[in-house]
Design a protein that fits this description.
Layout (H helix, E strand, L loop, with lengths): L7 E5 L10 E6 L10 E2 L9 E5 L3 H7 L5 E2 L10 E6 L2 E6 L18 E3 L14 E3 L36 E7 L5 E6 L6 E2 L3 E6 L8 E4 L3 E2 L4 E5 L5 H4 L16 E6 L2 E6 L17 E5 L20 E4 L21 E6 L3 E3 L4 E9 L6 E7 L5 E2 L3 E4 L5 E8 L9 E8 L6 E8 L8 H5 L22 E12 L12 E5 L14 E5 L13 E11 L2 E13 L8 E2 L7 E4 L2 E4 L8 E12 L3 H4 L1 E5 L3 E2 L1 H4 L4 H13 L1 E5 L31 E12 L2 E12 L15 E11 L30 H18 L3 E8 L21 H13 L4 E3 L12 E8 L3 E10 L1 E2 L2 E2 L14 E8 L5 E8 L23 H15 L10 E7 L7 H8 L3 E2 H5 L6 E3 L2 E3 L2 E5 L1 H4 L2 E6 L37 E5 L3 E4 L6 E3 L5 E4 L6 E3 L6 E3 L6 E3 L6 E4 L5 E4 L6 E4 ...
Parallel strand pairs: 4-5, 22-29, 32-34, 35-38, 40-56, 41-43, 44-45, 52-53, 60-62, 61-63, 62-64, 63-65, 64-66, 65-67, 66-68, 67-69, 68-70, 69-73
Antiparallel strand pairs: 1-4, 2-3, 2-6, 6-7, 8-9, 10-11, 10-19, 11-16, 12-15, 13-14, 13-17, 17-18, 19-20, 21-23, 23-27, 24-26, 24-28, 25-27, 28-29, 30-31, 30-33, 31-32, 33-34, 36-37, 38-39, 38-42, 39-41, 42-43, 44-59, 45-47, 46-47, 48-51, 49-50, 51-52, 53-57, 54-57, 55-56, 58-59, 71-72, 72-73
Helix pairs in contact: 7-8, 9-10
């Protein structure tokens, strides 16, 4: 066997053996003579058992599927060695010749097998006729007996001849003796008596085709008996056995004899129509021929070639010792058969040849000539014949390859061996073409996977996967490794057919990736025409050629024209359960996408230099749609049909600088304003596939700036601002072992939780600076913080766990100190929860506030359990999921209004809770929706109980609710009267980007009472639209120069939500003439129906005059006066930047109203006409008159010499 294993001997147990130790084996290697008994058996055995002795166990077991009974060195034999079987030390059976090297001998079976013919008996004399052979090399390359073409006949040997019956009568003996000693014997081996009246014997003389003599039989022939027809002049010995002696001429040794049943040939001797000369091959003249006992079926083809040696035994002339009886074993001997094996499966076309071995079974005593043939003589030839020597079971010949000088594929050729009395033997050999056969790339790519819904890695696999091919094509993109690649580093390059070799099918790609590994031997260039030979394979969803040999045929060739691909594409593929645009028909080709795309995702820009484009900025499905599985699936398909990834053509990670299409230098720098939402059109490049996305590798395009970075948040109306702010794992305890879930586990209530933030003090400072910049820019009174380190021991009292590297104070104190330092004043404080840890997670919610603007009322309330249910785990998953909600009541120091603020962080859509109810339902809400919904309901119920006990009517929910705007948790809060303030101000608002889709996860939700004071809101998109390459983190070798510490850009991955309210101390008039005085607070003074006198005094007041002729003195502060009409109203602004707002109702009636602004301060005060147009204006010495639309109502601005000196809010409309 190849590799030497397995080597084994099969023994057959002919009768029960109580003690096998009387038996043993020995081997005679290479004709070296007997070494005696080398291995003794043990145990017992039963008749009919087969015993296997192998040289070892593993190789035998792997090949045959069962273990040997014994292992012994004596079984370490080759196909040219002899084997002896001993009984009580005496040789009782022998295979081969112990004194002859079997190489080249008829019994050689190198890399093959020899097997005993059933019925043979043990003998110390080797008889090759009792053995069948596979022929040498028959098992080359085989790995198991089950799959072998010429399998070892396991457990086939049986004792005694295989008994059977013949289907009809046989000619069993022919006597062609001296003079008239001639006889024909007919044998009944059918097992039943036979009526002979239907039978006749015809004799054909000298090649005639018409019978010369016919003998009609009669009577009954008993089963097992013979019927003898003899010449009437034969000897007494013959006549004594004769049953019939017809007159007339009888046969000679060259005549044919046929036994008929009616007109049907039952058996024959010789070949009708042929005169062989003096006798038939193998005998017939002056011989007695006896049919071999193994023959049980007659020769019914009277015209086939005849050789008496195949089925007849030849006895001396006039030997009639067997006449009158016939020995018949029903086929106990091995049937004559030919088998053909070739020394190799393939041979080269140029000068190739292979040795073929023919093996015959059955009677091998006579010489046998076999006719040979080739199915394609233009590819391979064989000799006309090959001859077995008498007594030889094998014969060899040579199969010779023909070099046809054609560039065709490898050609299979069938070799045939034929001989009379044998079924043809065949074997196939492949003649390997030595001329280059070029396979076209479209033949490799095929149309597989182009159908809608095709599964990547299943439906798109090349029909030639695993095949070796040779292509010729032009290099279109060079991504070789080792510094060779000019476009990137992917371990290879893309090639595309020249247009003259296209098949012009819309479904088959003409491009493919050549993977040569990461140590290329040859440097190719774009424009080179190359010949590549390699194996077709699929890698990460992309068809490629690997294990390649590359030859550059020419250089400087024109590149194929890029094929234009319009988006959205017609259908999608499915990869890992996700949809991807079906661009299979263009995989590997140069493409141009004429659409205008926007950048939708940059999560992988810093690590893998890739970003996603889409036909639009896709919104999370449940941001504006109710959850629905069918509609969500359709949305995902539509989004996939319009999306493509831009990649850098490199498999390297963190490969700086980061390549982008930005309209300038093509790389990302700290000075760039490259953001999601920017436009890239006319995208061109080579189209590849990997990591579940089609990708434009190292592509180009036309960049247009659409989404400017908002360095500061939009102005939010109102005199009281609150912000919800995610601080992206701000930890002053450092994660000194960068990475996730790898320690150090040193924080949290049990000191077993890992820090999640900065890895070093320098990294923490980078993070802190950006967050401080953001807080200062937002200028809110209260900040609800999410994802801050969960440790609130108290200022100056931090006690980090052993092994922790802390920067001193609790993180929240470090943050407040940094903000105060930036403001130059100790104006910020933080709300102490009254306990060191809020919940058991590494992160917590927190509150900081302007101590000069608001005051704490009461203590913080913490929602961990409500009415016997856990807020952490409201549905009983068995582990904490939500972070505890916190609530604190504040008082506005400028108005006296009170407000309870609750900060929240609900379970994410990531890792599952383990509850079936939390499994994603496919409706767009993702994982853990049930837990979030239950938490939202519990939060609302808890807040309704006034958990701080301060009686504040105004309630504001802040934080990361991990739910989009139309999902169940948000709906649950809305059902209880809460209003999404961000959506109320801007229905298109978003605070987060995930998977190329925008949506709101961060909220400010006001109850009904608070909503009455709502003035405005904004999501400051300073984070979500930015690449995380710009943030503080330096993991994975991030380029530190991309960071800018003087901006808030990308301080987190969530955008802050800023909301504004108009908080005033309300002072209301009556329908009488009132004198209404404000105070030091921000007052809202509302005049009634009389002629009122209103004094704002201190504070930034809101003053509303009412219906009478009123006199308003705003006093000190930035006041707002809303003029609602009056025939003779006067307004004095006093100190501060005042705003005069004209209510639209002024021009609604027929009354002529006038307002005298007695002290308008040019360049300071603002006039808001609320959309009303100016009908006329006139300037006089010391004042300007403005007439409003309709021509009746007028404003007089004293101290203003010209209309242009008045500052208006918004554009001025002229009637």
């Amino acid at each position: 066997m190849p590799g030497g294993l397995p080597k084994a001997i099969e023994l057959f147990v002919t009768e029960d053996v109580a003690d096998l130790s009387i038996y043993g084996i020995g081997s005679a290697n290479n004709g070296g003579g007997s070494d005696g008994e080398e291995f003794t058996l043990s145990g017992s055995a039963t008749a009919g058992d087969h015993i296997y002795i192998a040289s070892e166990t593993d190789g035998f077991t792997d090949y045959f599927g069962f273990a040997p009974d014994f292992t012994a060195g004596a079984a370490n034999i080759n196909g040219d060695d002899a084997i002896e079987l001993f009984e009580n030390g005496t040789v009782i059976d022998l295979f081969g010749d112990i004194d002859t090297d079997g190489t080249g001998q008829p019994w050689e079976h190198l890399d093959g097998w020899a097997y005993r013919v059933s019925g043979s008996e043990a003998s110390p004399v080797f008889d090759i006729s009792e053995w069948t052979f596979s022929g040498p090399n028959a098992l080359d390359g085989e790995t198991s007996n089950e799959t072998a073409i010429s399998s070892f006949p396991i457990r086939n040997f049986t004792t005694g001849a295989a008994q059977g019956t013949a289907s009809d009568l046989l000619i069993s003996e022919i006597v062609e003796g001296s003079s008239f000693n001639k006889a024909i014997e007919i044998f009944n081996g059918t097992g039943a008596d036979v009526d002979l009246s239907a039978y006749s014997v015809a004799i054909y003389f000298n090649g005639n085709t018409a019978a010369s003599t016919t003998v009609v039989l009669s009577g009954t022939l008993a089963a097992g008996a013979v019927h003898v027809i003899a010449d009437d002049g034969a000897s007494a010995a013959i006549l004594a056995e004769a049953d019939v002696t017809p007159g007339g001429n009888f046969f000679n040794g060259d005549d044919a004899i046929v036994l008929f049943k009616g007109e049907e040939v039952v058996d024959s001797f010789g070949q009708v129509g042929t005169d062989p000369g003096s006798q038939w091959p193998g005998g017939g003249q002056n011989d007695t021929l006896v049919r071999k006992a193994s023959v049980f079926e007659g020769d019914t083809d009277i015209g086939d070639a005849f050789d008496a040696a195949l089925e007849w035994e030849v006895l001396p002339q006039d030997d009639v010792s067997n006449l009158g009886t016939h020995t018949f074993d029903g086929g106990g001997e091995t049937d004559p058969a030919l088998s053909l094996t070739l020394g190799a499966d393939t041979m080269p076309e140029d000068g190739g040849s292979v040795t073929a071995t023919l093996t015959r079974t059955g009677d091998i005593s006579a010489e046998l000539t076999v006719t040979l043939g080739s199915s394609d003589t233009s590819e391979a030839t064989v000799p006309a014949t090959v001859t077995f020597a008498a007594g030889s079971a094998t014969a060899t010949f040579t199969v010779t390859a023909i070099d046809d000088a054609e560039a065709d594929a490898d050609q299979p050729v069938t070799i045939t061996a034929a001989a009379p009395g044998f079924d043809d033997a065949t074997a196939e050999i492949v003649v390997e073409n030595d001329e280059v056969v070029i396979t076209r790339i479209h033949e490799i790519q095929g149309a597989n996977g182009t159908e809608a819904g095709a599964v990547v890695g299943v439906d798109d696999v090349s029909v030639l996967a695993g095949e070796t091919v040779t292509i010729e094509a032009v290099v279109t993109a060079d991504f070789q490794s080792g510094g060779f690649g000019v476009g990137g580093d992917m371990g290879g390059f893309y090639v595309q057919e020249e247009i003259t070799d296209y098949d012009f099918s819309d479904l088959t790609s003409e491009g493919i990736f050549i993977f040569e590994g990461y140590a290329p031997e040859q440097d190719v260039q774009v424009g080179d025409k190359v010949r590549v030979t390699g194996v077709v394979d699929e890698y990460s969803g992309q068809t490629q050629i690997e294990n390649v040999v590359i030859e550059i045929l020419s250089s400087g060739n024109a590149l194929p024209t890029a094929v234009e691909v319009e988006f959205p594409v017609a259908s999608v593929q499915v990869d890992g359960g996700s949809y991807v645009a079906n661009l299979e028909a263009y995989e590997g080709m140069l493409v141009n996408l004429p659409n205008d795309f926007v950048v939708t995702e940059m999560f992988n820009l810093d690590r893998f230099e890739e970003y996603r484009l889409g036909l639009e900025r896709y919104e999370q499905f449940t941001q504006s749609n109710d959850p629905d599985a069918g509609a969500y699936d359709a949305f995902l398909r539509e989004m996939a049909q319009g999306s493509i990834v831009m990649d850098d053509g490199s498999s390297l990670q963190n490969d700086y600088p980061l390549e982008i299409v930005d309209g300038n230098d093509g790389v990302l720098t700290a000075a760039d304003d490259f953001r999601m939402g920017d436009q890239i059109g006319n995208v061109s490049g080579v189209l590849g596939y990997g990591f579940s996305e089609f990708r434009i590798q190292n592509g180009t395009g036309d960049y247009t700036k659409l989404n400017d970075r908002p360095e500061t948040p939009e102005e939010v109306d109102g005199n009281f601002r609150v912000a919800s702010m995610n601080v992206l794992n701000l930890f002053s305890t450092l994660d000194t072992n960068p990475g996730s879930n790898n320690g150090p586990d040193v924080i949290g209530p049990d000191g077993d939780t890992e820090p999640r933030g900065a890895n070093s003090e320098a990294e923490f400072q980078r993070q802190l600076d950006k967050i401080v910049n953001a807080i200062v820019a937002m200028d809110a009174n209260i900040f609800g913080l999410v994802e801050i380190e969960n440790d609130f021991l108290g200022a100056g009292g931090v006690s980090p766990e052993e092994g922790a590297t802390s920067l001193g104070d609790p993180t929240i104190q470090v943050l407040v100190d940094a903000v105060n330092a930036a403001l130059g004043d100790e104006v910020f404080g933080w709300v102490d929860p009254g306990q060191e840890f809020v919940g058991g997670d590494a992160i917590s919610n927190a509150l900081i506030y302007r101590t000069d603007r608001v005051a704490l009322v009461g203590e913080m309330a913490i929602l961990e359990e409500f009415e016997g249910r856990s807020f952490y785990d409201p549905l009983g998953a068995g582990r904490p999921l939500n972070r505890p909600a916190i609530a604190q009541t504040f008082e506005d120091l400028n108005s006296g209004e009170t407000l309870t603020v609750s900060v929240n962080h609900l379970k994410s859509k990531g890792s599952l809770s383990g509850l079936e109810a939390d499994d994603a339902q496919g409706d767009g809400q993702g994982n853990n929706n049930a837990t979030r919904e239950a938490a939202a309901e519990m939060l609302s119920d808890w807040l309704a109980t006034d958990p701080t006990g301060q009686g504040a009517e105004n309630v504001l929910i802040l934080g990361d609710l991990n739910s989009y705007a139309r999902e169940d948790p948000i709906k649950a809060l809305q059902a209880d009267g809460y209003v999404d303030l961000g959506h109320a101000a801007n229905p298109d608002a978003y605070s987060y980007v995930f998977d190329g889709q925008v949506g709101t996860l961060d909220y400010a939700l006001a109850n009904g009472a608070l909503f009455e004071d709502f003035a405005g809101a904004t999501e400051w998109n300073i984070n979500s639209d930015e690449a995380d390459a710009l943030d503080y983190n330096l993991d994975f070798g991030k380029d530190p120069s991309l960071y800018t510490g003087d901006t808030a850009t990308r301080y987190s991955d969530h955008d802050p939500v800023i909301v504004g309210f108009d908080f005033y101390n309300l002072i209301a008039g009556s329908n009488k003439a009132d004198k209404l005085d404000g105070g030091a607070l921000n007052d809202k003074i509302v005049g009634g129906g009389g002629n009122d006198k209103i004094n704002g005094l201190a504070g930034s007041d809101l003053l509303m005059d009412g219906a009478g002729n009123d006199k308003i003195d705003a006093g000190v502060g930035a006041d707002t006066f809303v003029w609602q009409g009056g025939r003779r109203d006067n307004f004095t602004g006093g100190e501060g930047a005042d705003t005069i707002v004209v209510d639209a109702s002024v021009v609604a009636g027929n009354r002529r109203d006038t307002l005298s602004v007695d002290d308008y301060e040019v360049g300071v005060d603002i006039v808001d006409l609320n959309g009303l147009a100016i009908a006329d204006s006139r300037s006089f010495t010391g004042f300007t008159e403005v007439t409003l639309e309709g021509g009746r109502d007028k404003l007089y601005f004293w101290g203003v010499d010209d209309l242009s000196h008045i500052t208006f809010a918004g554009d001025v409309l002229l009637a």
